[in-house]
Amino acid sequence: MTQTVLELKNVSKSYALAPGSSKQAQGRRAAIDNVSLTLCAGQIYGFAGLNGAGKTTSIKAALGLIQPDSGTIELFGAPIDAAAFNKIGFCPEKPVFYETLTASEIVDFSGRLLNIAASEDRKKEILNKVGLYDDRHKRVGAFSKGMQQRLGIACAMLHDPALYILDEPASGLDPLGRRLIKDILKELKQAGRTVFFSTHIIADITEICDKIAIIHKGHILYEGGVDEFCPEHKNGEERFVKIIQDYDKKTSAAAAATD
Amino acid sequence: MSTQPQKSLTSSARLSVLSALMLLAMALSAQHLMKSRYWEYYYPEVQVANFADIVLQTIPGQIKSFVAGVLRITADEYMHIGPTKKAKQNFVAGSFAGNTEIMSLLELSVILEPTNTDMYAVMSHNLALYLNRFDDAIKLLHRGIQANKNAPDLHKLYGAAAYCYGFAKKPSFAAPAEVKKYREIAVNYLDAAIKSYLANEHRMSPYMHDDFANLQNYYVMQSRFLADVGRKSEALAAWQKVSEARQISFLGHYFTMLQQEEIAMPDFPDDLLTAAYQALFQVSTIRPPYSVPAAYRFWLTDPASLYYLAIYARGFGAPSLLAEDCHEHRSSELNQCGHDHSTAQHEHVTHDPHLQQPVQPDHVCGPGCEHDHHHESTHASGAAHEHEHDPECPHCASAKSWKQAGIPVMIQAFLMLATTIIIRRFI
Amino acid sequence: MRSRISCITAIAWYSFIEALRNRLFLGVFLLALPFAAAAWTIDVYQLGFQTRLVSDAGLTVISTLGLLVVLFFSLDQIIPDIEKRTVYFIFTRMPSRHTYMIGRFFGIVTTLLCLHVFLAGLLVMIIKLRTGAWFNEIPIAGLIIFLKQSLLVSIVMLLASCTSKIITVSISVLIYVVGHGLDIFRMLAEQGGNSIIAFLLDIAGLILPDFSLYETRIMVMHEIPAQTSALLILAFYTLTAIFFYLAIGGAILKHRDL
User: Fold this and answer.
1) Cross-chain Cβ contact C44/B104 below 8 Å
2) Pairing, β A28-40 against β A4-16
3) Which end of chain C has fewer CB atoms < 10 Å from its terminal CB, N or C?
4) Under an 8 A CB cutoff, do A113 and C6 touch?
C-alpha cells in the first residue's frame, strides 16, 4: 500500500463576512465545508474548481497557513509539523517576493530558510529549468508576473522535495510558460515525486494527473481517478461543467423547497 | 478561491479616529474664535481683515512660537550648565555673559519669533559687552526695532541699545572723548525709550514689567550719562524724576555733590568708585576687561555645583547614569566640599582665597589637597559625610532614589522574561 | 536549533539588504548632511565651534533619524509582507513564525545599528577635529539611544502583527511619548492622592516600557560618565523587554490566518 502523503478529513473553514455585504445578516460564509482528500505517494493530483471554489483555502489549511474550524490534516502521516516543510515544495497562486532582491538571492534565501546550502550548480540547474538563469541578477521588482511565477516554482524545486503543492502553477503564464510548467510536472511524475496542484484548466489535469478532485462552493463534488472521470481523457471539461451544474440545480431546488 | 484581505480598521476604530479629529478641530476653532475677539490686544502690529486671516496667521505663528520657546529653554539650560569641561571656554555657569553657546539658539528663536523683545536685550548685551561684537549688537537691536515698531514694549529695545552704548566704553579703559561720544548716543536712545514707554504705558500688561527695562532705571541711566557727557543741569533735572528709594546710591552721592557744587567732585560718577574697585581687585585675579588666565579656573568646577548637579540629575530620574554613588561620596572631593560650600558658591567670585593659589587645569579638591584647610574651616561640624546617614541627608536620599528607580526596573525585566518563557512554551 | 538560527540569520540578512537598497534609507542618510551643514551656517556671529550645541543637536538628529528608520522600516517589513502574501514564501519554509519575527527584528536593528554607528562616529570625529578632545559621552549616549529604539522596534513589530499601519504608528508614538513620562504620571497620581490611578499606572508601568530610563541629556550636557553597571542593567532590561514584545507578536502571528 502506498504511503498517504496528504490527508484532509472533514476540514471546514468559514470567514466573517465583510460589513456592508448583502449577506451580512448571515454572519459567516463557509469557504470550505467538510472537505476530505487523500493523496498518496507518487501521485499527481489535480484539484479543480472555479474561481472562488475553495482551492486556495484548502491548500492553505493543508500547509497550516490558516487554522481550520474543524477537521484534521495530516502530512506524511502526522499532524502538520514545521519539520515537514523540508519535504514540501510550495508555490502559491501569485508568488510575491522582495522586490529589491535578485532572483539569485531569492533562491539563496529559500535555501537558507530550509537550512540547506544550495550549490551554484544546483541553482544554475533549477534556474535554467524555469528559464530564468540569464535574469538571475535582475531584481524581482523588474520581473513580469510570469517570471515571478517561474521563480516561485524554482524555489519550490530547490530542495527536491517529496511533495509539491502548487496553487495554479500555470496562472499568469503565456502558452510557452504553460508548456514549460507541464513539462516540469511530467518530469516530476517520471521522477516519482508527488504533486498536488490546483487549477481551473481541466485539460491540464486530464493530460498529466492520476487523480482529480472537483471542489465547488467549498464542497468536494468528485474525487477519483482521472480515467474514471473522463475515459480516454476526453470531454473532461464537459464532465466538469456537468458536475457543477448538477450540484447547482440540486442546491437551488433544496433552497426553494426550504423556502 | 481567494480570501478577501482583512479589513484593517473596524468601523468602531474608524469612528473613534474621526471623533478624535473632530474634537481636535473643534478645540482649535474655539481657541481661534477667542483669540480673534482679542486680536488687536494681543497682536496690535498685525492688521487682520477677517477670520481666515487669523487662522492663516496663527497656526504657523504658534508653531514658530513653540519652536522658539524650545530654543530659549535650551539656551537657558546651556547657560545654567556653563562651559564644557573639556573645551576651555570664556564664560561661567549661571550667566549669559560671554556665553557663546547660546547665541545661535537665541538667534534662531529671534528669527522665528521676532516679537520677543527680551531676547534682543540678552543677545545685544552679550555681543556688545562680552563678545566684542558691538556692531552686530546694534544691528540686532535695529532689526528688533523694525520688527516691533508698534509693540507696547518697544522701549526695551531702545533701553538695551542705550545700555550697550553706555557701557561699551568705560572710563577705566577707554579715552574720555570716546566714552562721551558713546554716552551721547546712549542718551538719545534713552530719550527714545522714555518716550516710547510713556506713549505705550496704557497698553502694557503686568507680565511686561521688567526689572531692568523700566522708567526708573531709564531716568537713573539718563541722569548718569548726561552727567558723563557734561550736561550737568539736565542730569540733575533727570535725577529729580528718580524715586527717593533709588536715590540712595553712589550716583545719588554724586548728584548731592553736584547740587551742593562741591569743588572736589570728580568729572565722572565712575571716579567715585575708583577706591572701591581698587579694593575689589586686590583680592581677585579678574582684571577688567573680563579675562581668563590660561589655566582652567578652579571656581568654574566648583565641586559644590557638581554635588548639586548630582542631586538634580537623580531627581530627574537618571540616577543610573552618574559615576558617583552615595558610598563613594564619602571619600570623594564632594564629601570635602559639602553643604556649607553651597552658600559660599555665590561669594567665591571675589572672596575665594583659592583664586590666589596657582591652579592646575581641571583641578578639583581631593583629600590631602592644599585647599583642605579652607574647606575644613568652612564646614560646620557634622556637615562632612563621614556621619551616620541622616534621613534628611540628600546624598542618602539620592542613593535611595537610585535604588528606587533600579528595583522596579529589575522587577519588570524579570516579569517580562518569565512571561516570554511562558508564551514561547505554551502558546 | 541550527535550522532556527539559520532562518533567523537569513531573514535578518535579507531584511538588512532590503533596507539598504531602499531609497528611503538613502534619503535618511543624506538628511544627515544638511543637518551637519546647519551647524556651521547657524554660526551667524562667527563665534567659533560650539561643542555643546553641536553634540546636543547631533544626538537629537541621530535620535530623530533613528526614529524615522524605526517607524518607516518596521512598518514596511511586516505589514506589506502579510498584505502582499510575501510571508507564504517564508512561512512554508521555516520552523515557526516566532523565528520570522526575531529574524525581521534583527534585520531592522542591524540597519539601525549601521545608521547609528555612522552618524555617531561622524559626530565624534567632527568634535575631535574641531576641539581636539574625545567626547566619550557621545558614543555611550548613542548606545543608549540605540537600545531605546530597538525596544521601540519590537513594539512596532508587535503592533504590526495584528493591526494596520495607521493604528501601529499611532499607538507606537503614543507608547513612546507616554513611556518617556511614565514616572511623572505616576508621581502626579501619587501626589494627587488618587491611589486607584496610581495603582493602574503601576500595572501599566509593568507592561509598558519605561523610556525615561534612557534619558541621556543630563549625562551628555553635564559630561558625567555613565556607570557600567547601570548600562548593563539597562541592556538587560532592553533585551528582556524586546523578547517579551516579540514573543507576544509571534504568538499573535502564529494564530493569525493569512
Assistant:
1) yes
2) antiparallel
3) N
4) yes
